Fold N-acetyl-gamma-glutamyl-phosphate reductase.
Amino acid sequence: MEKARIAILGASGYTGAELVRLIATHPGMRISALTAERRAGEEMSSVFPHLRHLDLPRLVKIDEVDPGDVELYFCALPHATTQEVISALPRNKMIVDLSADFRLDDPAAYKEWYGHDHLALDLQEEAVYGLTEFYRDRIKGARLVAGTGCNAITGQLAVTPLLKAGVIDPDEIIINLATGVSGAGRAPKEGTLHAEVSEGFHAYNIARHRHIAEFEQEFSKAAGRPVSPTFVPHLLPQNRGILATVYVKGAAQEIHAAHAAAFRDEPFVTVLPFGEAPATRHVRGSNHAHIGVVADRRPGRAIVFAALDNLVKGASGQAIQNANLMLGLPETMGLEAAPLFP
Amino acid sequence: MEKARIAILGASGYTGAELVRLIATHPGMRISALTAERRAGEEMSSVFPHLRHLDLPRLVKIDEVDPGDVELYFCALPHATTQEVISALPRNKMIVDLSADFRLDDPAAYKEWYGHDHLALDLQEEAVYGLTEFYRDRIKGARLVAGTGCNAITGQLAVTPLLKAGVIDPDEIIINLATGVSGAGRAPKEGTLHAEVSEGFHAYNIARHRHIAEFEQEFSKAAGRPVSPTFVPHLLPQNRGILATVYVKGAAQEIHAAHAAAFRDEPFVTVLPFGEAPATRHVRGSNHAHIGVVADRRPGRAIVFAALDNLVKGASGQAIQNANLMLGLPETMGLEAAPLFP
Amino acid sequence: MEKARIAILGASGYTGAELVRLIATHPGMRISALTAERRAGEEMSSVFPHLRHLDLPRLVKIDEVDPGDVELYFCALPHATTQEVISALPRNKMIVDLSADFRLDDPAAYKEWYGHDHLALDLQEEAVYGLTEFYRDRIKGARLVAGTGCNAITGQLAVTPLLKAGVIDPDEIIINLATGVSGAGRAPKEGTLHAEVSEGFHAYNIARHRHIAEFEQEFSKAAGRPVSPTFVPHLLPQNRGILATVYVKGAAQEIHAAHAAAFRDEPFVTVLPFGEAPATRHVRGSNHAHIGVVADRRPGRAIVFAALDNLVKGASGQAIQNANLMLGLPETMGLEAAPLFP
Amino acid sequence: MEKARIAILGASGYTGAELVRLIATHPGMRISALTAERRAGEEMSSVFPHLRHLDLPRLVKIDEVDPGDVELYFCALPHATTQEVISALPRNKMIVDLSADFRLDDPAAYKEWYGHDHLALDLQEEAVYGLTEFYRDRIKGARLVAGTGCNAITGQLAVTPLLKAGVIDPDEIIINLATGVSGAGRAPKEGTLHAEVSEGFHAYNIARHRHIAEFEQEFSKAAGRPVSPTFVPHLLPQNRGILATVYVKGAAQEIHAAHAAAFRDEPFVTVLPFGEAPATRHVRGSNHAHIGVVADRRPGRAIVFAALDNLVKGASGQAIQNANLMLGLPETMGLEAAPLFP
């Protein structure tokens, strides 16, 4: 089998590097181009020395990439820029986008949360939301897949099956979430310095994080009526991992049964035995997600947990899982590695 | 002024060491005895080398302490043991207990949560709950003060004033909390190894943590009716600090006003400007607590935050604050140090 | 090709779990037995939840393992116990031992450093020291391979080629080393608690760490005369990774050239460009080692660095690399994964 | 006693904040001005929320400070800028500088290491090097004191007394050092992001760190002949703390005796019992330094350790210790707090 030729646009960030890491041992893909506008001309090994043992193409600018040498683009660029770049790509190429630019169906919602008009409405119409477990069939036939937010997928794995099954009160969903600092990217910021993050747990973007838009869109579809959760993310003093702790009203056993049913055949989502809760260390570095359901002491209430690695299942692993489907490869190809613990 | 002579029972744990650290520069106290049953005979500097510059008494067993040389005992022993030890102390000595043994008024609640009968019911009757901000007047005249749970005080600072002011729905209180690993003590356990904690965020004792008993007791008193919150603690990959993220139903501005009123004159509790949230790094190593209130996007809902250092305001600093009151010293004496950041 | 049947003796420790993690995606091996004396009867997923997605045999005691179902044993047991256990295994089975029990040729050295007589001298005679890069040919034909100490391999990669090439003064070798806490194992100890390790950098076993015995044995062989280095290990507040910083006397460029020559064709050892130094984060979770050489300001002196992951190249990855050779499999099989960063 | 009026120039960095933290409870100093050019006009509590309980002056620009309201300036500005700023201050004010600008006696050395001419040679002539333990008498009468580098003081505490006592070979000094990330400051840089530092131990500025200039200057004075050590610093995944591990040739017991003699009456330097080594966690947040001496297995060699907190004894605590002497206050005033552990 010939390997699919892959370009990664925006390879100098953490999600770009994570794509390279995963594709390095992927039997069905090979990297034909890596781009990074500001670091064009450099070797990938000078940007990411952990990849120095690999034989990789030199970093180039996007307009230096020959589309004839690319079957599928992974696009790991900032939002807004992304819409411009993808608009300029040939329309016969497959694209998996990791930015926020094609996640929201409704241009008004996009404008509300991202502060400017959507610049590629025609592309938005063909984009499929990249939460593989819920949109697998559409992703298989898609040309453009919009990867989910890393927090957004975590909350959705915990909540969406419960709304579909009608086992929780859709007006009483509280998503408390904590995320590792790699989700904030590699651009230097005071708030992500080691001296600030270590011993420094705190909430951020409280009740106004952009991933709320994804929750509202997807939860409303699942429930068949408008649903808006409370969402508070926190920044963890650790590099990787997201844990969502979701407070819901419903019967805990029914909730657990709904999860078990929804994810029964999923290769990457494990529902823990009733009463057990996941930990970020048990999914680190892998494409696995762990779901747990625990009954509250108060009748009619339950706590639902979801844990995953923000850079893998929350971003680059998810992107490869979707690309596998788009390319007709086995869905789990290249993603079989077990979590790294400790 | 002669300094009050202090004994610390259980000086080989983290809260014991923290008492020594704080008393070392306290102008009104001096340490006359330190006990540690298993390490009796050793110098404190061999157990805690960070205290080696201090001139401290050698560790002894409890029955080697001369009560004639003690005015006030800090008791930092495990629960159950504590009841026996305190029962055997002379009845004319002041005691600040840091264990769970005298926190619950109701012996039935004690038995339910701690698994055995209360062994010192007469002492329980005179014990005053040690949350200084709410029981200051009773603590001033108390002989036996029961320090709060470290999680328990954090949740109570966030919630109790709101129940007293009647500005939140008492049936809809969800306390999501994350705590540093020093709260789990110095006894070696697999779950608190660095290799397990680092990168390993997870919940524990979900909806069945013993501090729920304190919440139920104190919240019910504040509300004048039974109140039972949902409570889920999580273990942070950091040493110190607790952040409670509390989801309530009520008007956010009214909630903020209730906090501002309740803590207006408190030396150690700061209510942040409306819309701001605290971080554990901003209280680390100090007796300060920070409270924040943020409105949810959903009308009629708010998120209340409280942050403090579990070993100081959550344990040993609180104990000294109470001892200051019992001894007739200025309440803030020895506790003025600013937080250590970074 | 039929996969080689593998037993892992001592699967409840970190190196045991790491063997399982790596074998899980190894195309040439499958696990037929996992042992853990104290946890026999349990599922591996209850001991290591990060492996719960795998279909693994239940933990058993060593004497429950059917040798007929095993071609190669990985032995990840404490020292001394190991000699007894391996002595009792059938003599026609291949064994890769991860303990210290068969590393030292000289029984007197073993007794000096490990405090008791060697209990299996006949096995010692056939044991081959498992530093693949230096003993590859002998390992291919070995039945019993003794994995190196994790610190020991790090220092040897940095120093041994220089002694062989005669480019440094053998009497002036100072190995300063820092290691992640996972190397201390999963048994709970005060010294490896998060609260003690975090922010707590310090040296340990100063100038008397047992891996000195390996250095003396191997360096002396390489130099053809007795060589004894100074060796001071330190405990890092991180989970994985070893960095050796070695101070030597010699011409830095010649040293770099000797390294480049020694490791030119090695799949897992990369010599960085002259003047560059490695970081533990760039090898984390992988079987790769990075070597760097920097000239000191003082003429005739150089600093040599080696970085690797203590649980992979320093233990379980090395063990699999050796097992691959013993089983006639490609040496890199199952070890191709790139490092996990961040 | 009236408190001395203090201005802190450069209060928006970590050393500036640390000065404020320490002065907040200093009985002999009060802050009359805080400057931060880019954040002038802001409250200190918005830059450093951990100081929000303090009543502090608003941040201003340097030229807004009224010298009439200042007796002593702490100058925590970048190098080069510092020379200009201090040159413009009235010549009758006391100054404790925390930058590198006045540490080197020799303008040629300054130019070599800092890349440009010294801009205030007259001030350099009156500057006293701020290593209190070695220059106490001159500091008492100084107007301008140049604080040491944080790495520089750590190495000097370990080595200088040995050179003075003539108990080590001055040509064979190797200073291996590891430092917490707060030493790199608060300006956002990729290399100090949490995601890069955590699990990422590595050396930096190998054999060319600017603090070598201080070592050469001070060691040569102590030895009465030119001395140049090897110096390799490493970046620790922790916020605070420096540990120097120094390899020397000499008799270990004599070395220990020389340390014991040199520091016998020092309030902030403790020499551990022979054979014991310090840890950064045991000095964290305090002005204490711990020294340890261990014999190497190889005769005639020893390992000397020094541990201190880079932001306290390595910078702001040292500055206050010096200011106390200059102001005629007790040397330990305001610096008595015990280390914060864990």
